[in-house]
Amino acid sequence: MRSRPIVITEVGTISALGIGFSNVASSLSQPPRKSSVKDFEFHQFSSEVPCYAVRDFDPVEVLGKKGLRNKDNSTKFLLGTFDTGLKSVMESTEEENRPGICIGTAFGSVQSIGDFLSDSIVNGVNNVNPQAFANTVINSPTGNANIRYTSRNLSATISTGFNSGLDALIYACDHIGMGYLDRIAAGGLEEISYYSLLGLERTGILSKSGDLRAFALDSDGVVAGEGCAVFLLETEESAKARGASILGEIAGVGSAFNPDARKGSSGTDAAVHAIKAACDEAGIDPDAIDFIASAASGNRLSDQFEADAITTVFGTKKPVTAYKMFTGECYGASGALNTMCALSDLRNSRISGTGPAYNTIGDIPLVFDTVQKESTYVLVTSFSCDGNCGALVLKNVK
Amino acid sequence: MYENRVVITGLGLVTPIGTGVKKFWQAALNGENGVRPLQIFDATEFRTKTGGEVLDFDASQYLSKEEIEEMGRSSQFAVAAAKMAIDDSGIDLSKENPFRIGISMGTTMGEPQILEKGVKIKYQTGDAGQIPSNLPRQYPCASIPANIARVFGIKGPHIMIPTACAAGNYAIGYAFDLIKRNKIDMAIVGGSDPFSGIAFTGFNRLLATTPDVCRPFDKNRAGMAVSEGSGVLFLERLDKAIARGAEIYAEIIGYGLGCDAFKMTIPDPTGSGGILALNRSIKYSGITPDEIDYICAHGTGTGENDKSETLIVKSVLGEKARSTPMSSLKSMLGHTMGAASAIEAAACALMIKHGIALPTINYSEPDPECDLDYIPNQARPMKLETVVSNAYAFAGNTSSIVLRKIKG
After folding, report:
1. Chain A CB contacts of B103 below 8 Å
2. A302 min Cα distance to partner chain B (Å)
3. Do the domain assignments include residue B1?
4. ipTM, two decimals
């Protein structure tokens, strides 16, 4: 058990689920909102690529026009998430105690990096916009958020592929656990970019049908998504001292790595280790988990890894949901978006169903129809085909 | 705070002045300059035509042909440096619990050469389908720690912290925390960055690059030099190191982070984030400013950084700043980006071990605004018990770590 419980007191989000935490529950009750992309500034795909794009976000309306010209989409998503969800807490706290910022992202500003390079190839190295260079460092969105809110206490960016969002929460919990800070705004971020989509297409993991079917025996791949979710994490003591509403508690975290994942080996021991470490830190037996917010995305390999881990620890008796059916595979944002959806379900006493039923890998008991259920503990998992294994226990504090 | 003590027992270095700890140390003692005319590509079009390339790196000494084909240059550097650090520590990892070994790495650009290769194929052939299918998965910077884990069979917590040019210190700090909190027993930590055409173009466009050599803190300093390399340290719990009779370079006793929250590419001229990080590192280490014997500067050689860093040190150390020598290894190495602070931490460990502070080379004319002792041009034997290493970055990231000679 942690000596300093870490709680969630604010949530901001922008994704295919909409803008703002208060809209998440209703979005999870409706069919997923898919769209497609084809054209980017320097490159185009030959046909529309299905995806779960952010559609309702107008950066100028939310952030104002000033200073946006040289900001890329990742930065706009992050600043928009802060402005619509955490602005008051960032601005109302005196500078000295203002929350630090820790953001996970898999590809960072790869659209900006690739476009900077493309610009230098097309227009010459002496004609690229020097202002665009600032966007090419992976920590650019986080740094922009620190600048916007004069947040000096921490600026950390985490990049562990698909696990980045969950690992950013883990990093923030560890940082608070060390006693360095009492409050950190932490989460995950990813934009749909030409370069990441092209990479996924060349690697062969994008779904040709455009249907994301988590844990499906006949899944044909993943559908990309984008978005951002950021939580204000703070010690319970800090939250109570400032009279903040506590939305949930991060009771435990765990991580491990499967070095043989690329060889196709499930490496169940690493995933199981991460789950048990999170439960141990939460001071609970895995049996106490009420449902599992999985990272399943329709990627056959990582879904198989996850199914093996879940069935090893829990058998087939725990309900499992897959929020990527609603958000798409948002890479570095996924762990944070999954945690946010799990928190929404916890607070609304339900487990969101994923839609029409199908046969699942390992007979995973995927929740197809939404269930009304009071829960105390949710396990949020993130197991990638690269080998990263992460787990987080979310506790209901209602 | 937590009781576990964290020590450095192994080092691995891939740098423009030499690959391998011995080669690096001898070159650094001699004040060799690693910033030379570029060989990686034709730099005719650029205002700057020099940089720091690692010219003696042979990946086949550390990796199999199959591994090389699946890794970018940044990963190759990092895995090689990790192998050196593990060998140097004398540990047999096969006898350790793989879940109790962590990996924490930093980078600025990750694997930019992979992206550059892919985009160039697209432009040259007009067909993105010509990009090899195994290329994209080598790009994410997460592949750097993942490749280390794959090569050495490591299963513990695993992280990449890409906080630009301060990333090495952030990575070292996180592993320090995990060992302190007893989440792991040991860790492979550091930073890696390959030479990046994107970074070289960007810094040229910002007019931040020196036209020839790097002259940190000198009145005539003209900018930084884009460079490449990797530094890896093997960290472990003190009692584990003692139990196996390991040679200990130094102890890490604390670190501090901060942020300027000022501009993306320019440090805060008031040094706000740097002051915060340095003050925190001193506080968390449980030392006083008077105990600091030497500071390994961020010292990029840009007008803004060197002035701001001098101010930071004077603000925190007060009068003691004037009697605390500080040098910039970037005068020899150029700026190895996310690898820089890891290489500098490794160099600090070596300085403590040998009792010699490395110099700032290319220093000829003092700057009234940079008026401290920068150990000009010659390495200096001196008492080195407590040293601090600063690292700052784009986006205002600031960090300082504190190393101490192990006592008793």
Report:
1. 257
2. 15
3. no
4. 0.97
